[in-house]
Amino acid sequence: MHPVAGNTVEYHDRRENSIVELLRGGKGSLTGVSLGYVISALAVALSIYHLYIAYAGAVEAHAFRSTHLAFVMVLCFLTRPLRRKSWSEPVNIWFFVDLILIMLVVAVQVYTLWDLDAFILRRGDLTDWDLIMGTVMIFLLLEATRRAVGWAMVIIALFFLVQTVFSDHFFGVFYGPPNSWFNVVDYLFMRENGIYGIPLMVMATYIFLFILFGALLVRSGAGRFFINVALALTGRTVGGPAKASIVSSCLMASISGSAVANVVTTGSFTIPLMERIGYRPYFAAAVEACASSGGQIMPPVMGAAAFIIAEFLNMPYLKVAVASLFPALIYFFSIFVMVHFEARKRNLPTLKEDELPDLKYELKRGGHLFISILVIILLLVFGYTPMFSAFWAIVSIFVLSFLRRETRMTPLDIVSALEEGARAAVPVSVACAAAGIIIGCVFVSGLGLKFTNALVTIAGGKLWVTLILTMFASLILGMGLTTTAVYITLAALVVPAVVKMGVEPIAAHLFAFYFGLVSAITPPVALASFAAAGVAKANPMQTGFHSVRLGIAKYILPFVFVYNPGLVMVGKWYNIVLSIIGGFLGIYALTITTEGWAFTRAGLLSRLLACLAAFLYFVPYLDLGGLRLPLWGTQILGTVILAAVLFANYARLRKVERLTEEPA
Predict the structure, then answer these.
(1) Per-block average pLDDT, block size 10, for the chain (664 residues)?
(2) DSSP string across 360-378
(3) How far apart (Å, rounded) are the C-alpha atoms in residues 107 and 123?
(4) Where does the TRAP C4-dicarboxylate transport system permease DctM subunit domain lie (predicted)?
(5) At a CB cut-off of 8 Å and minimum separation 6, what does 459 contact?
(6) Residue 598 and residue 605 in contact, taking contact as beta carbons nearer than 8 Å
(7) Angle, nearest 10°, between helix axes 151-165 and 128-148?
């Protein structure tokens, strides 16, 4: 049966952008329209440049990274003009300030590439012009960071710059021998360690292509296809629209890597559906926010920081993705169970058959789009680089889109996707470059080692204290920094201390990665939650606090896999299996505690016992006086307690049902 009109969401949900508006006769002044063409042309040129490099092979590292950053900074100044909403506004003094900044970016890049070999040979022996150009570049980058990321990251970068140069004027762990501005510029500007270090390298080499892949995938209509398939699979079950939101957001955000963008894309459809069957607006918004933010931990693509983890640990990205797989699945499982319990508590109806898309019809129309995701997975499995995998995934989505009329992209769609990808990369690239300033300063000043030793001392050698301090640090940093910037800062300052205490490196880095993500749903600055609240017309703070409750797994799991690394595929095979099973059962027990439901409303005793069961599933061992209970022992004990809770509540439900069935 084909879905009736209005049930299937059409694939071509295409946001208008500057090039589309311009080609249709863009509005605004002549200057605004002309610059609009320039912005579009630069964005498309940046995308084509990266596609060419991915196909032909990388050029010299400094030339490649500096060219990428120069493109990005020009786009940043063009798309975020100073003291004006857009370039179409009347010309004023700030117009000329922006033009000067753009010319300075171009001048620095021309200076760098004019005689690249000589530029590289001058490392450690800078000329006056090197010092001037390096200083100008740092200033320009800080201004681009202010516009694209915000003041918080600028202030942090400035703090580390000042601390590095004037260390003798600080106290405590920040005190040390001062460094000359000459050394700072040499390290940050002349070498591939500071501004052009690992974060920007990963952004330019891998992440940009995956962002571009996501833009092309959306243009082909994959976003709406994912929603329709998710709704067809889950719509008949209790709380179907909420479960569809989880599935579709998981699929879409794992490709796009942006929680807020995914909220707006899928939430505009799933949130009204959830509200229609009876979910409260703030709850529906919280579901979408948690599901969308979870996409950044879901392989195959994940968020930008995952690629940086691979570089920091010097391991293939596939290993990072595999290590992240089961924690991500457990996280989505927890939200799935919570929305099911909420639907049961509120006795919400299921969707009617004629309100659901037809799964066979949807797969026939858009199932071929899944092949492009399989291309990424298979190429990574066979050992190819992320750059190679992303390039051929882009080629595949381009070819696959022409197999069906509903997904076929026009030339304008393709050009628009190239522009959207470049625009979306601007804040991420700027944040990565600014994070390079922080990492470079930490290295030059020697602060990293001192901070690690100080943290171990403050924690008294206790790992749990270090982890809690790290958690609070990430939540505070997350109020003003992007996910990638939070992770990089923690990786430079805190993660070495955690590893020094005996934690597996992959678990330590994923701990920082997870807590870099939770700021998207954690008040007071919960961007994904607030975006979802806007779609649902709900109270933002109420949505934020419910997001914390629904996303509880994201706060718990990092502690679990630090103490029990089997969850991230480290250790003997039987410990890995037990850890994964325990992870799912432990989260299920925890949802009973938070939601107060197990077949029927759970009482206080049931909730406390379920919480105890969750604890037993999560710990790697338990000391009971002189008796040490290993992992399998704690899980058996947890299973006995959880089974008792479920049996008691099921028996109570049956008793209530029998009493209601008996005649008066």
Answers:
(1) 39 46 50 73 94 86 94 93 74 85 96 93 92 96 92 90 93 88 94 90 88 85 79 82 80 66 74 84 89 83 80 89 92 91 85 78 84 87 86 91 86 90 89 90 86 82 88 79 80 88 92 86 80 85 89 92 92 91 94 90 91 92 78 91 93 80 60
(2) HHHHHHHGGGHHHHHHHHH
(3) 20
(4) 136-571
(5) 465, 466, 469, 497
(6) no
(7) 150
* Nearest in space to 192 (alpha carbons), one of 62, 53, 58: 62
| Strand partners for 622 | 629
86: tokens are 């857009």
Scanning 80-235, the segments in alpha helix (DSSP H) are 93-114, 116-121, 128-148, 151-165, 181-185, 198-202, 208-219, 222-234
State both tokens at 112. Answer: 């760098």
Long-range contacts from 463-469, C-beta under 8 angstroms, 24+ separation: 463/498, 463/501, 463/502, 463/503, 463/562, 466/494, 466/497, 466/498, 466/501, 467/498, 467/511, 467/558, 467/559, 467/562, 469/494
- Residue 335 DSSP SS3: helix
Tokens at 253, concatenated: 């955000």
**Contact by Cβ (8 Å): 379, 391:** no
Main-chain phi, psi angles of 347, to 5 degrees: 55, 50
Question: In sequence order, what are the residues at sequence separation of 6 or more whose Cβ sits closer than 8 angstroms to the Cβ of residue 135?
Answer: 181, 185
Q: Which residues pair with 601 in a beta bridge?
A: 597
Which tokens go with 401? 């889109």
Enter the DSSP assignment of 431. H
* pTM of the shown model: 0.83
Contact call for residues 588 and 331 (beta carbons, < 8 A): no
CB 159, CB 437: distance < 8 Å: no
Sequence-separated (6 or more) residues with CB below 8 Å from residue 88: 27, 28, 29, 31, 32, 33, 35, 36
CA distance 484 to 496: 17
Distance of CA 575 to the CA centre of its chain: 29
**DSSP secondary-structure letter at 189?**
I
Q: Is 623 helix (H, G, I), strand (E, B) or coil?
A: strand
Contact 489, 477 (CB under 8 A): yes
Let me know how many helices (H) and strands (E) the chain has, helices first: 31, 4
Are residues 642 and 585 in contact, defined by beta-carbon separation less than 8 angstroms? yes
Q: Using a CB cutoff of 8 Å and minimum separation of 24, what contacts does 456-460 make?
A: 456/497, 456/500, 456/501, 459/497
- Give per-residue burial for 347-368: e unless 16+ CB within 10 Å, then b: ebebbeeebbbbbeebeebbeb
